[in-house]
Amino acid sequence: MLKLFQTLSLISATTTMGLMAGLFAAFSYSVMPGLGRTEDRVFVEAMQRINAAILNGWFAVGFAGAIVCTGLAAALHLGSGHRAVLPWLIAAFVLYAAVLVITFAVNVPLNNALDAAGDVDRIPDLAAVRAAFETRWVRWNVVRAVLCTAALACLAWSLIRYGRTL
User: Fold this and answer.
1) Concatenated DSSP letters for 105-122?
2) Is the pTM of this model over 0.85?
3) How far is CA 52 from CA 74, 127, 154, in A?
4) Cβ-based neighbour number of residue 61 at 10 Å
5) Transmembrane ranges (predicted)?
């Protein structure tokens, strides 16, 4: 039964981490460059709407699931027979923990400030609101994408190592 839980936790961790790596990467190479080519009003309004829309159950599953499932997988592999897998799980956990720190310390406060600016029709200086948000948010999102992709690679490697122990 332990093997089943180990396997399921590894698969769940890899899947949820893949969802998050894909989300952050997609923002890095398509969403933000596309919005970067728009006028200030479109940029601010689109980001406000994206920030509201992303707060849903599907996002929560990936966002929280990546840390929970990775932590669970690591806990289930603490025995001495799993030394080949455990370091990769710990690395993935630490990398994603860094993503969470960045998210809550940088990206969420920027999202909140953008929302607090109010309705785009009532913002007197859209360029200033955008300038206070865009460069810093984009920079730190790229960092999140890189860290999350590295965590995904660690989890993929842990699956390979785990498969060799069966």
Assistant:
1) IIIHHHHHHHHHT--GGG
2) yes
3) 33, 21, 31
4) 15
5) 57-78, 85-106, 142-160
Tokens of 133: 């948000």
- Which structural domain range is residue 108 located in? 2-165
**What angle, 0 to 180 degrees and rounded to 10, lies between the N-to-C axes of helices 86-102 and 126-165?**
170
- Encode pLDDT of 116-134 as tens digits: 999 999 999 999 999 999 9
Amino acid making up residue 27: F
Tokens 């840390």, located at residue: 67
- The per-residue pLDDT for range 19-55, each reduced to its tens digit, is 999 999 999 999 999 999 999 999 999 999 999 999 9
Written as six digits, the tokens of 155 are 């989890």
Q: Which of 71, 8, 43, 67 is nearest to 138 (CA)?
A: 43
> Which tokens go with 15?
């899947």
CB 110 within 8 A of CB 136: yes
Nearest to 42 by CA among 116, 141, 129: 129
Instruction: Give the number of domains in the chain.
Output: 1
Closest to 89 in 3D by CA, of 66, 62, 61:
66
Angle, in degrees to the nearest 10, between helices 40-53 and 108-116: 120
User: Where residue 139 falls among pLDDT bands split at 50, 70, 90?
Assistant: very high
